[in-house]
Amino acid sequence: MNDHPDGRSRFRGMLAEAAGAVILLVVVLAFMWALEVFDYLLPLHLDQYGIRGLDPSGLAGILFAPFLHMGFGHLMANSLPLLILGFLAAVRGLGKFLAATLMIILVGGLGTWLTSPNVIAVGASGVIFGYFGYVVARGIFDRNILDIVIAAGVAIAYYSMLLGVLPNQPGISWQGHLFGLIAGVVAAWVLRRRTAKPITAF
User: Fold this and answer.
1) Potential cystine with 50: which of 65, 97, 136, 155 (Cβ 3.0-4.6 Å)?
2) What is the mean pLDDT of each run of 10 residues along the chain (202 residues)?
């Protein structure tokens, strides 16, 4: 029998899952924008519900912080990278994408909480750095041609992001960036293929 139809079927399945992830990301982004509009019109100061470093009452902010932003400029800067890197993170399956996202939010958020005393951190940039780390590390751990190509493209296109993990920008949570990146690498390791395989095509 000819294997090409199966290969095309797998490829279509991957694209369908990635498209599902994009729809999910668009919905999440719409929710973020709605929150920002709501906060602007009524001002409720929702940013106070972000990650409060070393404050036990601020631990809940680990779950809320990725959806909150310090104004429309902050949210606009995060929107496109979240969509692009989120889509690339989802290429290998929606289930792994959701698991990776949860690990990035929890591990990255906890690291930020532990290292950011007297600071409230908000924004999706920790998740964005997490997707960057996840996509690049997945190419290293899984040794799949598609993952390697995506990892190389992301590393070339977004390498300048790595400057964001350095404490050289006042008002920017470099801790959130750094621990988001680390969480992405951890997620790629946890979700890697469990059997050693040679480099293969998708």
Assistant:
1) 65
2) 61 79 92 96 92 95 97 96 93 90 98 94 97 96 88 91 86 94 97 65 48
What are the φ and ψ backbone dihedral angles of 136, each rounded to 5 degrees? -70, -45
For residue 89, give the CATH number of its domain. Answer: 1.20.1540.10
DSSP structure class, residue 51: E
Q: What domain range is 162 assigned to?
A: 4-190
At 200, phi and psi to the nearest 5?
-130, 160
In angstroms, the CA 184 to CA 105 distance is 9
Which value, to the nearest 10 degrees, does the dihedral of the CA atoms of residues 118, 122, 125, 130 take?
70
Is position 94 within any domain?
Answer: yes
Q: Helices 94-115 and 125-142: crossing angle, nearest 10°?
A: 120
Question: What's this model's pTM, rounded to 2 decimal places?
Answer: 0.90
The angle that helices 174-190 and 94-115 make with each other, rounded to 10 degrees, is 140
- Sort residue 33 into left (φ over 0), alpha (ψ -120 to 50) or beta: alpha
From 28, 101, 100, 105, select the one nearest 61 (Cα to Cα).
105
